[in-house]
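Worked example

This section walks through a single chain of length 581. The input is the sequence exactly as stored; nothing has been trimmed or padded.
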Amino acid sequence: MNKAHACCLLLLLPTACAVPSAKIQSSELQTHVRWLASDAQEGRRTGSAGAYRAGDYLARQLQAAGLEPGGENGSWFQEFEVTMPAQPGTNHLRVDGEAWSDVGTVAASPTEEVEGELVPVAYGVVSAADKMDDYAQRQVEGKVVLLRRYCALGCDDSEQAKELGNLRKKIRKAAAMGAVGVVLGVHPEDVNRGGAASVRFKDVQGIMPIPVVTVASAAFGALETRCQNSVLPVQVQLAAEVVKEKRIARNVIGKIPGRCAEWIVVGAHYDHLGWGGEGSLAPGVHAIHNGADDNASGTAMTLELAEAWSLRSKKEGAPARGLLFCLWSGEELGLLGSAHWVEQPTVPLGDVVFNLNLDMVGRLQSGSLTVGSAMTAKAFAPALDHAQAALKEAGSALELQVAGSALPGGGGSDHMSFEAVEIPAVFFFSGLHSDYHKPSDDWQKLSFWRMQELSVALMDFLDQTQTAALRDFAYIKPKAPEHGAKSRRGMGDGVWFGSLPDYGAAPERGMKITGTSAGSPAEKAGLQAGDIIIQVGDFEIGDIYDFMDSLAEFHNGQTITITVLRNEQPKELSLTFFPRP
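Given that input, the structure is written out below as tokens.
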């Protein structure tokens, strides 16, 4: 943080703050939410036409409110490239020269064509390394393997069913044994026993080293019979295509310059999940996910705060510290918009005092709101106390519940991009609910009058942080999360590792991280932001899915070796697992 702004030392001496000159209305908050969360915007998935319409709407609102453009080249926008969720392309399979129909692929397959002898392989041949003998290697090397997805239902031993259903492990082992491609399917007898009828495109995520095509159940049975009964080797040519379209996403940014060079960044993400699919908690449902609470609510609040501060500055003069109002895109894909801004800021990053993040602030019927990351700067606690007093004075019973330590996983929202570069941030969040990431997250379920009350607290909080001493914004790393702390994203099963993945990175192999959770095994092991994890114990890590798969194999108290690439050089670290607090 830049501490050389002598002008601010005079500007920020404690003074009696004027009452905000513009009161935020619940009707205006509702107007914004209803527009953003209408079916016409089709869920605002990053890179979609609906997201572009939403971005244009936000820019118009900031302009009408009297802000200055805060994006690139004097515009309201900051553009960045995103990779859309993978989609199946055109896939082919020819068997002894004959083209087969109903051929698909999986999301993890590379786009590639191969040919070779087709050999059916029992699961044991491509599972654990101790089963991979020389004979098995000769069976598979240089060939296309016919892999069977065993039933996920109807198996007597549920743990065995889970093991047999690990398609990623099967495909990786086949590749390690020298296979050049995979034909994957479900045998009809497994369907009859209650198992899955097919292998779906999304069943294998990540990046596999060899191409994979899928066939229908009946076709799989026919191929297996043909391989077993044919005198001559069965020859196949397969072509898998996975489309990963690149699109341009846009952050929308407006600014109110202050009397000195310092900036407070007020932000919320405006993207959501489109018609469902990746990220949805309504699997298999193709319907518009309007995302009224997540995060039309935070977006609407940011717009209204921008308008209120703009009206105030025109009446009373520029604020001491400038205010940058940022509507992020790409949050649902992994905090991509805020991470891009931190890497390529539109104001000097050293001049940013802190970030205020609003993500899901519309479900306030309980009368309370969680405030996360408040321990990252000394200035936050007194400002929040003052904001709570302002609520009481205004006749509101809304309670700000300050989390005493880091939320699990950091809280899973855009403030984490700022904390990753040691800029303090504070996160306002009304809590998870049964409509989270589902089509049912609609505007009618938001408490707009409570949101209006929250605006009183937010205006007062920003007032207090305008006058707080710069030294009180020195970054403080959060302590380990408390048991039972609220998190925007669910916690996974298995051991606690504590790394924070960089979802926007695409290393050739491994999983890049932006940092570690406070007090976690990863932090204690010495992992650092920018490390690329390539080995966890005996497991090679090709992508984040390999990493998550590996964690199921360990237990608390176990010590393993982690290999990372740090500055392009391999480095081994010792990590011991222990329970999450």
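What to look for: The first helix runs from residue 6 to 11.
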